[in-house]
Amino acid sequence: MNINVTKSAGVVLKTQGKYCAEDITVVPTLEEKSVTPTESAQEVTPSTGNCGMSKVTVGAVQTETKTITPTTSQQTFTPTSGKYFKQVICQAIQAYQGTATPTKSEQTINPTSGKYFSSFKVAAIPSDYIIPSGTLQITANGTKDVTNYKNVNVNVAPNLEQKTVTITENGTTEVTPTTGKDGMSKVTVTTNVPTSGGVEEVATASAMDALLVEANVGKYYKFTGTTDSNYTNGDLYLVEGGGAVSSHTLTINDQYTGYWAVTVNGNDATSPYTLQNGDIIKVPTLTQGITINGTSYDMRSENVLSISNEDITVTRTGAEKTIDPVPYITINYTA
Q1: Residue 163: in which H helix or E strand, if any?
Q2: Burial class of 53 by CB neighbour count within 10 A (0 to 12, 13 to 18, 19+)
Q3: pTM strictly above 0.85
Q4: What residues form DSSP beta bridges with 69?
Q5: Chain centre distance of CA 249
């Protein structure tokens, strides 16, 4: 007698108290199954009508090999549907050493397409690259090397000279600097142009005295002798009517210097001074007592006087004051 067992719980043979004339064979009903692997755990059970499985065949895992190339961004790789990675091959990075030379401008250096820097070498600063600093002072003409300097201050003083020119006749006089000079800081022009006749040079005071006669009125004489109380070497003298000559003097009592000085034609006067036709005398009124040829003037007075053919005596007393602008008494002298 054969009995098929189709339930996993088995069957019950009710033989209690009974006689069984033959052997009883219990045969389980089994089946074979095939399973395909998945990403999740699987429970395999026999189908209905079977009490178990005689064999379970698990299919081979479907694998593949993946090769990837590195990039500068993150990459996500998934296997082909139904397959699994057997291995993932990451290719070697294509690297090389980058190089650069410093310049004065900003540089952006990128690797060659598809490659990466394994290292980067910055060359030394070139020998001709200089960061200038400081200021070079230039005070003389010439060629200067300014390579190392950030600034250059050029302060070359011109090579100037002063000249004195004496003009004794009408016309145009051109005054030019000496060769090697850049120009002139000052030109002093002394004009002694006779208004009538020529100029005769006289070497002695006695000879000059002998010429002061009516017959020589209107003539000019240049004194070339030694300066004395009446005549000054180099000065011109005009014989006027009556044989008189313009040889009057300016006498300054208590002459001051600089700011407070009495001046003739813009220069500090030295007493006694031989007066010349056209002289302009300026007397600063900066002291309490001021007397000109016996006439008193107050401090700060500003007068204009005209004096002809006579001596001029200026007396000043008291402490000098500083007043700005300076007040003057101006004397216009004619011979």
Answers
A1: strand 160-167
A2: middle
A3: no
A4: none
A5: 60
Per-residue pLDDT of the chain (335 residues; tens, 9 = 90+): 666 767 666 777 777 777 777 777 778 888 999 998 887 888 998 888 888 888 999 888 888 998 888 877 888 888 888 788 889 888 888 888 989 988 878 999 999 887 888 899 988 888 777 878 999 999 888 898 888 899 999 888 888 888 888 776 677 888 888 888 888 888 888 776 655 456 789 999 889 888 877 778 878 888 999 998 888 998 888 877 643 444 788 898 877 777 778 888 888 888 888 888 888 999 888 877 888 998 888 888 888 888 888 889 988 877 777 777 888 889 998 87
Enter the tokens of residue 223: 């004194």
* Alpha carbons 310 and 291: distance in angstroms, whole number: 16
Residue reference for tokens 């006579």: 310
Residue 117: count other Cβ atoms within 10 Å of its Cβ: 16
Spatial distance between the Cα atoms of 28 and 5, rounded to a whole number of angstroms: 4
Tokens of 317: 């007393």
CA 195, distance to chain mean position in Å, is 60
Partners of residue 212 on adjacent β-strands: none
Helix (H, G, I), strand (E, B), or coil: what is residue 178?
coil
First-last CA distance in the chain = 183
Burial class (CB in 10 A: 0-12, 13-18, 19+), 312: buried
Residues in a beta bridge with 160: 183
Q: What Cα–Cα distance (Å) separates residue 118 from each residue in 90, 115, 121, 255, 265? A: 17, 9, 10, 94, 90
Residue 335, classified by CB atoms within 10 Å of its CB into exposed (0-12), middle (13-18) or buried (19+), is: middle
